[in-house]
Structures are given as C-alpha cells and as structure tokens.
Design brief:
The protein is an alpha/beta fold. It is globular and about 65 Å long. It starts with 15 loop residues before the first helix and ends with a helix. Helix 2 links the parallel strand 1 and strand 2. The N terminus is likely disordered. An eight-stranded parallel β-barrel has the order 1-2-3-4-5-6-7-8, surrounded by seven helices. It contains 15 helices and eight strands. It folds into two domains: 259 residues, Aldolase class I (TIM Barrel, Alpha-Beta Barrel), CATH 3.20.20; 72 residues. It binds flavin mononucleotide. Keywords: Flavoprotein, FMN, NADP, Nucleotide-binding, Oxidoreductase, RNA-binding, tRNA processing, tRNA-binding. Catalyzes the synthesis of 5,6-dihydrouridine (D), a modified base found in the D-loop of most tRNAs, via the reduction of the C5-C6 double bond in target uridines. This is tRNA-dihydrouridine synthase. Belongs to the dus family.
C-alpha cells in the first residue's frame, strides 16, 4: 500500500520550495508497518555467518520485531547459485523477514530484488541494500560500503530496485567511508530523493571496521536530514543502551547485531526497559538450553554438519565459569552430539564449582 508519509522532521525551518520538494519525494515512499508500531521496533541486524534462520527464529521468539537475512549476493542469485538461494529460505515460524542484497549493478540488483519478492511473497517485510560492509573482498568489487564513495551509483541502485518491486526498499550504511569524513547525512538525503523508504545507520566509518565506538550522534544527524524512518545501529548490548540510543537520536527503530549473539534474550530485555519493566538475565541452565536448541534448529536445516554453530556456542558460553576450556573444545565440534558433550561438561563443571563453595 502506498501512502504519503507525514513529515517526521520537526523544529527545523524549511522554505516553501523545500517543503513542496519533500512532499513530492515522500509520495513515492512506502510505509513500513514494521517500523511504524506504537513502540520502538527492535530489529536483529543482518550478520553474515550468524543471522541464519535458526538464529532469526530464536530472536523472534525473544521479542525481535523484525530480523534480517545475512547479506545475499545479487550476482549469486542471478546465477541461481544454490548456496546463495539457501540464504533466503525462511523458517515456518518466520512470517516476515527483511532480505539484504549486496551488489553494485543496478539492473542485476533490480532483477534479483524482483525475484526475491516473487519467491517470498508476503513474508518479505522489505528489501534492504547493503551499503556498509567494509570487508576487503566486498569493497574491492565495488559492493557494500564502496557505494558510499559513489552516491550516484547508490541512488541508481535504489531507484532501479524501487522500479522493480512493490515492497519497501531500505538501505544500510555507515557514518561514512573514509575515517573522519562523515557523509551519512548527505548520503541519506541522496537515497531519500531516489525513493528509499528507510535507512539504517551504523555509527562507524567503513575504514574503522569494528574498531572504537559507534558514534550515535550521526544517527541524530541523519534523522535531522531525512523524513523517512531512521534505524539506529551500533554497540547496543542492553536495554539501557537501546533506551540511550533512542533518547539521544530520536531514531525510529533500534538494530542489534553482536549484542544478540549468544544472547537472543537481549530483545526481551530491551523491550522490557523501553516499557519500564525490569527483566531477569538468563541463568546458566537457560543459556545452555538455548544453545542446545539452537544447535538442533541448525541441524534440522543443515544436516549433521553444523560447524557454523561454533561461533554461536562460543557466544552462549562467553563469561561462564569454565568457558575458556570449553572454547578450545568447541573448535573441534561438528555435530549436535559434539556440542552437547561440551555443554554437558560445562554443566558438570558448574555443579562441581557450586558444591565446592
Ligand atoms: C559477523 C558479522 C557479520 C555481519 N554481516 C553483515 C551483513 O551481512 N550485512 C550488513 O549490513 N552488516 C553486517 N554486519 C554489521 C552489523 O549488521 C552491524 O551493523 C554492526 O555489527 C554494528 O552493530 P552491533 O554493534 O549491534 O553489532 C555484520 C557484523 C558482524 C559482527
């Protein structure tokens, strides 16, 4: 459904010409119900190698309003690559998901966006374009955050996808490409003019990779710059962080990445904090039970080899007594049974630890 979005900017003087221009722009925008709720939506970030359907399912159960797929290569989809297509498989419990595409050719991005929309139908919440990935193998091809260096091309991609699909189209990018050169507000404006329906901003420069801290003020500056919804992202690990990000920036939604790894409960915590409720941290037993369930969900999809569970398992065990020893053993785990054996040993170790006190 296409709808004129009311101007979300407030407190800023804009001339009549500017207002008329914005009205024309906003007419083309599609309302995103997932970003329009009465409470601040909390989203699971796209994370390659992490946000697979098993993890997305667990995060939805814990209160995430929307989850993103791992980034999916538009080129790979265009070659009907089976591994790439697997990335957009959705679990039965997933009634809605945002699919993130990466690439740099507007026509390929547009045709594959249309393919994804056809394949997922009403389960597709929106299509997101990766304009923030700083990995060398991505950037050297002109994909991911390289698009921040070429706003015309980035805008052409958004424009092309908008012309090919009827679902909303969003973009996720960083504070800027080169360290110290904050281009995100102007970049967001450029994408808005091309028809983007929402933007997600991670407050680090691409050249920074994951070093230092995410600057949340850039989220506020992007919010000032555009009228489409702005999703704030970077270093949110608790309910208090999310509340601070919202208060500091006025962002329309909060996106959580690493803070959810091994901790899908972070969504319940954030929602509790924003509603003024206290929530309890999961116990050791609950963490291990979640890790076991996660392993089983992965095995149901991937078969016996669930090597990708290693990273998740390490995250579930982080900070637990005996975790350092367990981590070394996790590096050799392949099957559900292997992971269960490490979790069993950790529980026994914890029980010994308690009885010795
Ligand atoms: C392992 C890993 C994989 C990631 N993969 C993607 C990706 O596929 N697409 C994307 O836009 N960002 C990706 N990111 C970036 C996150 O979505 C997020 O912007 C970043 O981690 C900052 O948020 P956080 O501090 O909540 O983790 C990835 C981050 C990590 C740690």
């Amino acid at each position: 459904m296409r709808r004129v979005r009311p101007d979300r900017r407030s407190g800023r003087h804009r001339g009549r010409h500017d207002a008329a221009r914005l009205d024309r722009l906003t007419e083309a925008h599609v309302s995103i119900p997932f970003l329009d709720g009465p409470t601040t939506p909390i989203l699971l970030a796209p994370m390659a190698g992490v946000s697979d359907r098993a993890f997305r399912t667990l995060c939805l159960e814990q209160g995430a309003d929307l989850t993103y797929t791992e980034m999916v290569s538009a080129k790979g989809l265009s070659f009907a690559n089976a591994k790439t297509r697997h990335l957009i498989d959705v679990a039965p419990a997933e009634t809605h998901v945002a699919v993130q595409l990466f690439g740099h050719e507007p026509d390929v991005m547009a045709s594959q966006a249309a393919w994804v929309e056809d394949a997922l139908g009403s389960r597709l919440a929106y299509l997101d374009v990766n304009m923030g990935c700083p990995a060398r193998k991505i950037v050297t091809k002109g994909d991911g955050s390289a698009l921040m260096k070429d706003p015309d091309l980035a805008a052409a991609i958004v424009h092309a996808i908008k012309g090919a699909v009827s679902c909303p189209v969003t973009a996720k990018f960083r504070r800027g490409y080169a360290e110290g050169d904050e281009t995100a507000p102007a970049f967001a404006r450029r994408l808005e003019a091309a028809g983007v329906d929402a933007v997600a901003v991670h407050g680090r420069f691409a050249e920074q990779l994951y070093r230092g801290h995410a600057d949340w003020d850039v989220v506020a500056r992007v919010k000032e710059a555009v009228s489409v919804p702005v999703i704030g992202n970077g270093d949110v690990r608790s309910g208090a962080d999310a509340a601070a990000l919202v208060a500091q920036t006025g962002c329309d939604a909060v996106m959580i990445g690493r803070g959810a790894e091994g901790n899908p409960w972070v969504f319940a915590e954030v929602k509790g904090t924003l509603a003024g409720r206290a929530t309890q941290k999961p116990s050791l037993e609950e963490r291990l039970a979640m890790a076991r369930r996660h392993a089983r969900l992965l095995a149901a999809e991937e078969g016996r080899n669930i090597v990708r569970m290693r990273r998740h398992a390490m995250a579930y065990l982080a900070g637990l007594p005996g975790a350092a020893h367990a981590r070394a053993k996790l590096c050799g785990c392949v099957t559900v049974e292997d992971f269960d054996a490490v979790f069993d040993a950790l529980l026994e170790e914890a029980a010994r630890h308690l009885s010795a006190r």
